[in-house]
Structures are given as C-alpha cells and as structure tokens.
Amino acid sequence: MNKAVSLLTSKMTLRGEKGFSRIVIAISSGSIAIGMAVMIVSIAILFGFKDNIRAKILSFSGHMEITRFTIGDNYQNEPISLESSIVREGSLVRGVDYLQPFIYKAAMIKNEQLSKGVLFKGVDQSFNRGAFADNLLEGSLIDFNDSSYSQEILISQKLSEMLSLGLNDEAVFFFIQTPVRIRKLKIKGIYQTGLEGFDENIVIGDLGLARRLNNWEDTAIGGVEVFLKNFDDIDRVEEEIFDLMDYSMQLEVVSGKFPQLFEWLKLLDRNVLMIIGIILVVASFNMVSSLIVLIMEKTNSIGTLKAIGARNAQVQSIFFSIGFRILLFGILYGNGIGLGFCVIQHFFHVIPLDPVNYYMDAVPISFEWGLFGLINILTVLVVAACLYLPTFIIGRMSPIAAIRFS
Predict the structure, then answer these.
(1) How far is CA 348 from CA 340, 351, 352, in A?
(2) Which end of the chain is more exposed for a tag (fewer CB within 10 A), N or C?
(3) Which DSSP helix (H) or strand (E) runs through 287?
(4) pLDDT tens for each residue of 144-168
C-alpha cells in the first residue's frame, strides 16, 4: 500500500503536468514573478530617489544648521565664534561626522541688461567637496587660499544662462549692506542640482570674502552646518545639540528647512508600502485560486490515494509542496527580472526623467540588498501560509465521490 501511495504521489509533480494544469502553473508562477519584480523595482527606485534628493540637499546644507537667533533678515547672521562652546561640544556629539562653517550674504549679480538677487554662501576648506563635485557640469571647485581669500565662485547653470555668464567670466556682485560693496568675482565652476530653490538663488564662494565684507574677526562665522554619519540619527542628535545651546542660539533641521521635499519623499514611502501590500494580496489570491484548480483537476487521484490508505495530511502535503515549488520558481524568476532591470537602468539610464519636475535626468536606482532579502522572505511566508487554505478541501472529500468525479 505504501508503494502504491508513493507511486501515485510521484506522478503528481510539476514535471508531469500537461494541458490545462500546465497553463495554470505557468500563470501562477508568472504572477508571482511579475509581483516580485515590481516590488524589487519599486524599492530600488524609491530609495534611489531618496538617496539622490538627500545627497543633493546635503551637498548644499548639513543635516542641521546652528546660527545665532535673530529677528528679521535671516541672511545677515550675527557672528558666532569658531571657538565657542557650541562648536566645540557639538562636534563631539555621538553620530556627528563633522561641522562646516558658513556665512550667508545677500547680493545682486548685474550684467548690462538685467540683475538678479542671489544668496552668496561663503564656505572654507571644510566644504564637502566630494558631495558637491557630483553637481558640477563645467569647471572645477574653488581653490581656497590660506593667506587671503579666493575671488572664485560657483554658480548654477540656470543663473549662467539667465545672466549670459560662462566659465572663467567675471561677474559683478553688489553685496547688500551699508555701504554697498562691489566685487568682481571669477566663475570657476557651473553646477546643476535640479532643485529650483538652490539653482535659482545660491552662489558658492569663499567664507574669507564674506568675513572681510562684514569686517568680522578671523574666527567669526555666520553659523555651522552639522553633518551626521547616519541620517537615521537626526532626531537623537537634534535633541542632544539643542541641550548644549543657550538662549541666543537657534537650531534648524534639514527636514524643516526643505519641508516640501521631505513630505514628497514620505508620500513615496506610503505609495510603495501600498504597492507591496496589494501585490502580496494579489499573489496570495492567485496561488490559492491556482491550487484550488489543481485540486479540482486531480480529484480522481486524490480519491484513489485516500482509498488505498493515504491520510489527509499526506495528500495535503503533496499539494502544498506543488504550490510551494510554483512559489519558489516565481520568486526566482521575479528576482532575475527585477534585478536585471535595476542593473540596466543603473548603468545605462534607459528611462529618462524631466529634471524640472523630478530633480534628476534619469530614474535613480539604489540596491538595497537587505530590503530585497526581506521582501523575498515576507513573500514566501505570506503566500506559503495562504497555501494551506485550499488544502483543507481535501479533508472534506469522500474517497468514493472523488473517484467518481469527472
């Protein structure tokens, strides 16, 4: 009897399926593969967008910004000292990577036809050159001079086109103060981020020049930008730095400085979670439906197995095994399709984007291997759990009625 059960069981495999059963199996495996590929691509694109947007923002601004509290014009900061306690102690907070001093100056760039108001941001040798270099379209970064200050600047492509200024041209700046100061500064590089707030307004220059224009001491700065080792530590570090500050200082976090961008990223998070949830529900429904169809088609074989002594648990395990193999094939193909697309898009940028609306010229990809693995495990657990549901039909089948079924 055991040999007979084993013989019938061996025939109920994926290899031996033909006709309608093969079509059902192909559809089930294909739906799992498509769902898995969509989940992988969605996660890769989501984190690609988040990483790119964050990188662009952090190439201009730290995770948080410490300045002296002022009422009125935020672009004419009251000075703080590089030797102040908040600068010294802030750099020692756990999770802080480094501090970058800056000075903002309001200015006008003028040519023969028009003028444009800009924000001159003075930086020094601690400027995050590696991160900002990715934004450069032409030229190079500023060469800082230890003994004096550099008269080189970086402007955006948008400002370059608007004011008809090119690489190595001299731009006339009118710095807004009393009295107005005029400087000719050489364009050393042209950048583009796709972030309108930066490209239309920010000019990068030497902190030493801004300090000289303000008649400040050599240790005076307008504020410091705090860069973290891990973005996820931002709430904890904000609390610790805030506790170190006195009443005359203020702290601004990057998510509060650019709320529209971070709200957009949160919306993307919610959309991807909805997509993953819907795909898991659809994949589970497809697998349950397919297994029910296979059980109905194999009713005669089920009746024969039960008639010769096979227990319900044995027969149920056969169909669970069939469903699980379909699931694994689908996951395997889905990973191949999803990762294959990600690799092609990452290296060849086959899907372009409009930088005006999306802040980048191609769909970005980030290979989040940990999350890819988690999605694979979650899919196996959820769909495999659902596979048990249709197998309970087997326990309600009468051997005689099942054998007669056609």
Answers:
(1) 12, 9, 10
(2) C
(3) helix 259-297
(4) 876 678 999 999 999 999 999 999 9
